[in-house]
Amino acid sequence: MKRGLVFLMVVIFAFSAFAKTKLVINSNASDPAPREAFKKVVALFQEKHPEYDVVVNTFPHEDFKTLLRTWLNSKEAPDVVTWFAGERMRYFAEKGLLLPLDDVFTDMSFEDYFPGSFKSASEYNGKIYFLPFTWYWWSVYYNTEVFEKYNLTPPVTWSQFLNICEVLKENGVTPITIGTKYLWPTGGWFDYLDMRVNGYDFHMDLTAGKIPYTDERVKKVFEYWKQLVDNGYFLENHSSYTWQDAASFLFRGEAGMYLMGQFIKDVAPAEVKDKLDFFRFPIIDGNVGVYEETPIDGFMVPAKANNPDGAKEFIKFLASKEVQDMYSKELGRLAANKDVTPPDAHAQKGLDLVLASDGVAQFYDRDTDPEMATFGMNKFVEFMTFSQRLDVILKQLEFQRRKIFK
Amino acid sequence: MKKKWWIPYAFLALPLTMYLIWVIIPIFQTFIISFTDWDSVSPSYNFIGFENYKMLFYDYYFLTSLLNNIKWMVGFVIVAIPVGLGIAMLMDQKYKGNKFYKTMMYLPMTLSFVVIGEIWTWILEPNHGVINEFLRGIGLGNLAKPWLSDPNLVTYALIFAALWRQISYAMVLFLAGLQSVPTEQVEAAYVDGANSWQRFWYVILPALRPAMVIAITVNVIDSLRAFDIVFVITRGGPFYSSSVMANYMYIESFNNYNMGYGAAIAVIQFFITLGFIIWYLINSFKKEDNL
């Protein structure tokens, strides 16, 4: 009896000694490099705010995507979650599952922290629901060794680009590598071709479901794509590969180019990293503005968070120059905070590319409805396998668009 | 000491409660959800009657998935069962090294389908995969195929990978069944001058009937719930050509936010499976009546 009482006392004591408020963060930063970098961010927060007991749960990307909805709906919602800006965030904001973050920016406005262009990707109905953290550019990455070997220089125009593809193919090198097992790398091709052929406004209207996929202008996009497919410039059997598998063809010099985001460097072996460079996606129509893909990654607070005050404290911490500087240096990515300078020459080049553009998009699967994205990207893979089915594919895309965007 | 009647029920109470909460109730919830347009995110939804079910029959990808499940079923029944039985007959003989071979054949059973999927992703890889390298090595390079990228081949490639494990499962069932074959009858047949084929066909096979019913049922049900290998190796791709019902249900419910539609797929899958379970039960009761 006495023993039980002592035990109880010890338990109570133990709990009161650690009576900190819990702050739960669910993160999708599962690749080794980002995971390590985020650990440092949390350690710094813990140092500055010892009153919080921070718990970080990390999940693999694809699992995170499916689990997020469950968390947002549950009573035991995490306090902070990682996510993507744009339509992907808006989907949840619209359903009232997110907490507005406007009161985080009381002493300074959102625009004091971030470039003005980030606002539209972070808000819904005039309220901020998303904290931009890092972002990166997409472009055509190439193996400099391969280019040197065949005396090639980065192209500017579409015909120069086709020329390079032809030279590489003649020499037995796969011109363009791509892994379509998880579908999304095809979205990059569709976005860039559409933005180069039809421009940004058209692309945004299309992804918003306002333009039929059977429109002549959409068909034109696929006709450019078809030139590459029919000439056999893409990696053979691309649907057997994940994006990382396909990247290894580029790293080994078996392929010359890869349309990909900056994070390709996360998976490149150390000895290859410096052999990778990138160039702007070739210009197709000189009369159309130059637009780039720059997905923004960041954080949100679920409406059902148990510790909304702590969550906002953490969000404010994440917005600061100090933290964003630290994180972007770790990964060579660009920080959302506009006071942070690019961490290295590679990132500076990427930033210059974006600053010289006329506008930026997020990505096909972040700009359009999730169901449309799955269907669309499946159809893109089908097109890249059987380009002769183009007309049927366009009709099917249009049928799906009408079903989804009623 | 007087036996307390409630003791067995007390032991059952916890597992039964858990089974009820995590298996039985969700099955009924799935029925309900399948009549709604719930997107799994919104707090509210509408009842739309049989709309989801009607849509399924116009859905090319669902029909592809259903057809693929049938291919899996045929593969599992006409390949795994005879081959598994054949191997079991071989393993049942007494010869040197018999235990070693038995272990080797049984090994795939110890692996989960996820691990098998990872292994076969490499075996089937088109450029440097074991199968294609082997075919090229023995001068049959023209038989090397993009197993996972060709929409007409990919389902067969996946079934082949799954059979690797399924055959060893069938073998284990038949090995167990062979223990119950009465040796006197086999010996009597031998004395009567029956050759080995006749002994197999008229004596052993009828005695294996219970094992056969179990093997067929297990294989049919396994083929209907095929998911892991597809998910790991192709995710149903390229463009849904290797999709099976479970896989399509997962994509619709969890990637495309169509929980109601996904639930309808699950319900159809449930009833097909239930049909086979009833067939199994009828068969096993029949057997008891005969005894």
Write up this protein.
The complex is a heterodimer of chains A (406) and B (291). The mean pLDDT of chain A is 91. Chain A has 406 residues and is of the alpha/beta class. In chain A, strand 4 (123-124) and strand 5 form a beta hairpin. Helix content of chain A is 50%, strand content 15%. In chain A, the strands form four sheets. A six-stranded mixed sheet of chain A has the order 2-1-3-12-6-13, sandwiched between helices. Chain A is globular. Chain B has helices spanning 7-33, 51-56, 60-92, 98-106, 113-123, 130-137, 154-179, 183-191, 196-207, 209-224, 228-233, 245-255, 259-290. In chain B, helix 8 packs antiparallel against helix 9. Chain B is globular, with a radius of gyration of 23 Å. The interface between A and B is medium-sized, with 27 and 25 residues.
What labels would you give this structure?
heterodimer, A: 406 residues, alpha/beta, 6-stranded mixed beta sheet, 4-stranded mixed beta sheet, 20 helices, 15% strand, B: 291 residues, mainly alpha
